Every structure is written in C-alpha cells, then in structure tokens.
Amino acid sequence: MSKRVLGSLARIADFDTNPFETAVIPRGDWETGDLVQGQVVGEPTRLYQVESTTGEMIAVEPGDEVIGAFGHRAATLEGVGSWMEIDDGEMHALTSAGLFGRFTSLSKLLPGPLQLKYTGHLMRSGRRIRMRDFAIAAPQRELDLPAILMVGTSMSAGKTMTGKFACQILSDLGYRVIGTKLTGAGRYRDILKFRDHGAAEVYDFVDAGLPSTVVPEGEFRAAIRPLLSHIASRDADFMVVEAGASPLEPYNGAAAID
C-alpha cells in the first residue's frame, strides 16, 4: 500500500492540523519555495529515503507520495541541480529533506538519486502554499549574542562535528546555547545534532522559509533577519552557528558571516 511522506522541509508547516489539496498548476507559475507533491518512480537505491519532519529516515518505494519544496542545490562535492531544470514533471530529491529539482551534475560515487514525478502543488483556497507562509516573524532586534561561527571549505569538512562539541562543552559549563545553521541545502540532521549535544533551542534557514540558501542575496538577508531577531529575544548565553557548504559556492556564506 502506498504512503505519503512529508519531507523535513515541511516541518515548519501546519499540515498536522490543517488540511490541504493538490492541484497541477502551469509551469510558468512555479517558484522557489513552493510546497509540492511528487510520486516516487524509478528503480530504488539506498537514496530512496526521505528525512521526515521529525528527522527520522523513511524508506520510500515507487508509488509513494513525497511532500517537498522547489529549490536549488550547488554542492559541487556531491550534486548540483535546480527546480528550474525539471523537464516534463520529472524531478529528483536534491536532498533527502524533500528539496525538489533536477540534478545537472552528480558525483559518480553516489547511487542513482530518488526520482519523482510532479503530481501537483499544495493548495488552500485556490492559492499555492509556500514555505515562507510559515516563516518565523519577529520584531527587529539587534543580535548582540556572543557567537561561535563554523565555516569550512566544503561540505563534510567537520563544521557540524565542531559545532556539536561546542554546544556540548558550553552547555556542560551551564550556559544556555542556541544552535543555528544559516546556510546550506535543507536537512534537519545537522541542527538536531546540536540539540542532541546540549543546545536548548535550534534553528536554521528552513525556519526562515528557505528550502536552501541558493537565492539572491537580498532575498537571503530579508529572510534571515527576522530569524536572527527571534534568536536575539530567546535569552541565551551563546549562539553556535554553522555556515553550511562552502563560502566559495553560491549559498550566501559571505552574507551570513556579515
């Protein structure tokens, strides 16, 4: 029996309490951050797994439906792709969180990616449901919280490993820590590691309504500012911050550092 799985990009939405419909809409109306549904197709590999809204990895098979969002990925170590490359509704899960697009470049060290067929946009009252509909909103506030920032030359450089130990050490010393990931492509697992190692609260760019931070710099700054204002209000002692991916890739790493 087929099942529907919500990718972790949908964790900020209210789908557990409010229903939605799906409808196919014209390609010209698609945008980054649209929440959409795809049906699993193709021959399963070990990448036929979806990171759920709780961070649990759920295996999927052809015929299952997956909820995710349109976005872009520019991880040159593994794969590069975009929703703008989707052809005739054929798309990939660019990350297991439900970042939907189509790969234009993929490492030969990886098996075949999760393949999907676009089956519609999530809709309410005739309008598209978007990630930004559920983004954190907060009055503007200066962020003067002491921050420890991890930046690396690539993914898998050890940023999350360093960050989780920073969270552990500071929390063991009695400090209240907030763990944050400001750039990258949507996955829940990194900030969950911060939480598991002592961070009292965790946030990332998904909470700001972005499926990834491969967006124009102005859009990134506008989305991240309310999140930082919210964090500034949370009465913490330290913020441990990961700038995911590489500052040499178009994830807005320089803007996050600024």
Tell me about the biggest sheet? Answer: 5 strands, mixed, barrel
Helix content: 10-25%
Write down the overall mean pLDDT: 95
Low-confidence stretches: none
Quantity of strands, as a count = 16
Number of helices: 4
Separation, N- and C-terminal Cα atoms: 49 Å
In angstroms, what is the radius of gyration? 18 Å
Strand content: 25-35%
Q: What letter string, H or E per element, gives the SSE order? A: EEEEEEEEEEEEEHEHEHEH
Coarse morphology: globular
- Total domains, how many? 2
Strand arrangement in the largest pleated sheet: 3-6-10-9-11
Find the structural class using helix and strand composition. Answer: alpha/beta
Condensed summary:
This protein is of the alpha/beta class. 17% of the residues lie in helices and 31% in strands.
What do you see in this structure?
The chain is 17% helix and 31% strand. It has 258 residues and is α/β, with parallel strands linked by helices. It folds into two domains: 4-134, no CATH class; 147-257, Rossmann fold (3-Layer(aba) Sandwich). Strands 3-6-10-9-11 form a five-stranded mixed β-barrel. It has a four-stranded parallel beta sheet with strand order 13-16-14-15, with helices on both faces. The longest helix has 16 residues, at 217-232. The model has no long low-confidence stretch (mean pLDDT 95).
